[in-house]
Amino acid sequence: xxxxxxxxxxxxxxxxxxxxxxxxxxxxxxxxxxxxxxxxxxxxxxxxxxxxxxxxxxxxxxxxxxxxxxxxxxxxxxxxxxxxxxxxxxxxxxxxxxxxxxxxxxxxxxxxxxxx
Amino acid sequence: xxxxxxxxxxxxxxxxxxxxxxxxxxxxxxxxxxxxxxxxxxxxxxxxxxxxxxxxxxxxxxxxxxxxxxxxxxxxxxxxxxxxxxxxxxxxxxxxxxxxxxxxxxxxxxxx
Lengths: 116, 112
Description:
The complex is a heterodimer.
Chain A: E1 3-7, E2 10-13, E3 19-26, E4 32-38, E5 44-52, E6 55-58, E7 65-70, E8 73-78, E9 87-94, H1 100-103, E10 106-107, E11 111-115
Parallel strand pairs in A: 2-11
Antiparallel strand pairs in A: 1-3, 3-8, 4-5, 4-9, 5-6, 7-8, 9-10, 9-11
Chain B: E1 3-5, E2 9-13, E3 18-25, E4 29-37, E5 44-49, E6 53-57, E7 60-65, E8 70-75, E9 84-92, E10 101-102, E11 106-111
Parallel strand pairs in B: 2-11
Antiparallel strand pairs in B: 1-3, 3-8, 4-5, 4-9, 6-7, 7-8, 9-10, 9-11
């Protein structure tokens, strides 16, 4: 069965510090990968998605970047955090067979980031 | 652009039926999905409507009407554990076909 891991679960960082959040998927090959951010009580904002190693699409211009160094590894980074980067960061994957496979995304447990 | 609107909050009592609406403005999409998210947790997939009509999965049903730009999630025999946020989502035509646009979300509170 497929599983998705994210770490750390919670993180408190000072403004101006760097960030690295990691997401790994097990039990599937060549997945589509996604990074979302969710502010408290709000919806899901798609930040980045990737269809393959080294292929990153950015949805919103921002202070963050993403990388996919391996097929099942997705990393979210920042060189200097801003207060507005606080939120709940979710990684997700979906299959690549088309049809319903694309519509079901599987989410990791998330990282709650607080920037002080 | 695309947007999906949902009521921000809905309250219902245990055992009742509740409908969560999703109205959208999008030029075209493959289907409408629904996700459930408990407080502090990850969203989980509930249902998917590729075609107009009603899809039933146990106590949950989902409906889509493309002509009315409208869909809903119907929860029957409500239980306390159904208290959560619910999001509709579409996969739009054009561009990258593998990303979802999520609605604003509805917080459902089930009361005893």
